[in-house]
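worker-03 picked up job from queue 'complexes'. Input manifest follows; two sequence lines, order preserved.
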Amino acid sequence: MSTATPATAAPKRSFTASAAVYVNERTSLAGFVKELGRKAFPDHWSFLLGEVALFSFVVVFITGTFLTFFFQASMVEVHYDGSYVPLKGVEMSAAMASTLDISFDIRGGLFIRQMHHWAALLFVAAIGLHMLRIYFTGAFRKPREFNWLIGWVLFVLAMAEGFTGYSLPDDLLSGNGLRIIDGLIKGLPLIGTWTSFMLFGGEFPGTVIVGRLYSLHILLLPALVAIMIAIHLVLVVVHKHTQYAAPGKTQNNAVGPPILPAYAGKAGGFFFIVFGVLALIASFFTINPIWNYGPYDPSPVSAGTQPDWYIGFADGALRLVPPGWEFVLFDRTWSFNIIAPVAVIGIFLVLAIAYPFIEAWVKGDKREHHLADRPRNAPTRTAIGAAGVTFYAALWAAASSDIIATHFKLTMEGVIHAIQAILILGPFIAYFITKRIAIGLQKKDREIVLHGYESGRIVKLPGGEFIEVHQPLDEYDRWRLVSQESYEPLMLRPNAKGKITAGMRLRASLSRWFFEDRIAPVTKAELEQSKHDHH
Amino acid sequence: MNRSKPRRTGRRHPLATVALIALGLVFTGGGYAAFSSSTAQAETVANSQQTIDEGEKLFQANCATCHGTGAVGTDAGPSLVGVGAAAVDFQVGTGRMPMQMSGPQAQVKPVQFTDEQTKQLAYYVASLGPGPDIPSDHLSNGGGDAANGAELFRINCAMCHNVAGAGGALTEGKYAPPLTETSGVHIYEAMVTGPQNMPVFNDLNISPEDKRDIITYLKYVQDSTPVGGFELGSLGPVAEGLFIWIFGLGAIVAITVWITAKSN
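worker-03 finished. Artifact:
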């Protein structure tokens, strides 16, 4: 690399090399970069969903910082005096007035505000899709249980970030949302009223809530999200990424392009693509037009009041409660119309976080798993997932029951009753259909491995017999179809003390539920046998 | 570099054609507007005995089946004595009457009568008993205080019609219609007569000037260009959520597939 001066004998380094050496002599980063740069990252489109969430968060962070320059988190009453005519002179909080100023009087303000909000919606949506990918491919199994847990915490944190942000402008829509939260809290027995008064600094809406939510929204919650993301990513590096089974891709390796140089460039480019898509959406599509909603005032409530999509399932749960679940006992009102949906949501979230541990316990499987399952090869898990998605989707749809009613010309009551039925029956239907489909697909895979593809070529044998020639599978495709693990229901055997405990019985019955209906993977012997059978 | 002053070439400025076309459009448009408004005035129907007689004939032919001869009502339709000209002008003028079918509420459909016939019907019904009249132009054309109107709208109307006037659901299949294309006269008439499930907002409840302010606000919303881009039907978070899942995340997933497909 001696390019500069031929007079000196010592090899002259390029600028990049000297800079790298300079930095390395002061930080010893070389080892780290070497290690990280050679990390392989398996390539599949669904492995990029977590990155989408991360990149959306970066966009939210950048745009949010811009918004803090102009937003005033204060509920002091002011008279609006900005550009938007239908609100001129109207009394509102400084928070609302400054949000209107961001939208109408600060250059680029509306664009950044819309980008912030759209990116927030995409952030939570990408987390949701990422979680579904992890779930359905079983990527939460040992050693990745903690990362599932952290991901779950991130999902809840993202919802909290979203809700606190949505409530900041102090417009009519967000005020209605806060009122529902206030009602939820007040409906809880014993602690409800006290908690509400503590949160709002007195009776709703008070004069402090926007300031408090702002501190949470820009300080505590983003810090927690950032820490959790850091741990999440470190664990991904520690565990290595999962991969789908393919020739050369096994439990013990991670096959894919190394992070440096190409992959890092590609991921960096992908960030700008996500950024660009969000910028385009923010330029062309209105989000949360607070000027339509006007300032918050506890008396008006607009038709079609909904929270942002990720809180929709909670709003839907409230809408689906049948009337009359409220009674007076011990001189107290017990609002089961609120306690029940809160409990249902709580149980749903706890089941989601606990699932990896439950499944591992049921299987009694303590091995590490680095190959991502194809969803069909874990029919019961996939079916449980489908049931969960249906349950969540029913709650979610219920939040838009009024809009479904007006747009499809249905009755409000009919929509609610239909969704109530879907909420209860839908998960079971989804469970059975999904399980059948998964097992059917497994059967098809087995058939293909043993007998190959139908070629459509009919051959007449000398004896007059007609046969269809099956085209055998090549070894690469076969590998994908046969490399799966197989579980059988656990046998119920007495433990060391010669007893069968209730816990063991429960585990055995759950194991039977999981693995009773199973398609055994093709064994080597079967494969050999099938080769001899071929005509 | 030798800079020379732009010389006059004697040719027209390049924007002259554009200016000429703009001027022409302004004149034609302005002339058309002036002409059409003058014809509208000419067509205004006077509340005379002849009008009432014409209206009675139309009523007997088209409305009496349900509302009864003399509009006294039958089992199929209510009495119209005392509903006033405003009610008829609203129901017939928006196409709700004659009703197409029984249902939770009368549906909007293409208007069945000409403006003249509608007025004849209205004055006939008004002659049967005193009731609210068709509002004068200065009340229904806007021109009031939009900010006051917006506040009144949020307090009195938004719980059914949605805060952006996008409409909303009521019980048993009934609904509050969107106000995105409703004329000022019809909005005023709806407020004073309370059609379908709407309550009556009489002049003691909301004064005529306040009604004018509400109309001013709704006209502002109807006429203003959306500042933030496409409004997704002004349906709020439901439309936004569906949009980000289907188009936002859909586009991103398509891109992830493209990125990873390149390497394979």
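worker-03 released lock.
Residues 47-133 of chain B form a domain with the Cytochrome Bc1 Complex; Chain D, domain 2 fold (CATH 1.10.760.10).
The CA atoms of residues 240 and 246 of chain B lie 10 Å apart.
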